[in-house]
Please model this.
Amino acid sequence: MCSSDLMASILNNIGSLQNNRQLGNTNRNLNNVLNRLSTGSRINNAFEDAAGLQISNNLRADVRILGTARQNANTGVAIANIADGSLNQASDLLSRAAEIATQAASGTTSDSGREALNSEFQEILGQLDSLGANTNFDGESVFGGNFAVRVGEESTQSVDVNVDNLSSGDVGLGGADLLSAGGADAALSAITGAVESVSASRGKIGAIQSRLQSSIDAISVQQENIQAAESQIRDADVATEVVNLTKLQILSRSGASAAAQSNLAAKNVLSLL
Model:
């Protein structure tokens, strides 16, 4: 039975009840639209889209995992940079050692001169030992250490940052001296090998840095794609919500006006008495 067929009644104002129910629905929808606009999210409660909420939460977890993985990779790059910086200093020290070894190997250098050169040479070897022993990251020795950098959710997604030991003995200069021309000549040959060893270590570190940077780039792209997918599911369409807001505001005002008119209906019945 349509509302126009309703009989005049004092006890029950059916038109008012129907209007109030419709007005309540309109106001509830209006509050939902305002909530979506204020939060920027299409899904603020599970009842709005339970499946979408579950997928969105899973994607958000993936984004956070990838963010931590990228941070880990950046930490790995920092460790490699520290090692490379120390090896660069080692290269400079070995270059100086080669200079004084060449001078000590010359027949024009006196024994007292070789003693002075050997003192500097032994100091260089001590500095090499100090670099290897005192280059640390978070309390752990970088040289001779192995840092497994986790760059993904799976256990297989890991990059090992391992750096060869660094000391005068490790580069083949243990026991070398410049006290004689023959000793200086042997030391010079050993220094050449040490330079090649340090260069090889730097090349290894460079490869690790490159791999970590590639991982960072890949993680960044993956993170962007997942965030875009999550945004499509969860983010509110502002243009659509503004249209809905305007429509619901009009309905709310017209509903309030209709409520006032329907309440007058009961008063009009009294005019019949």
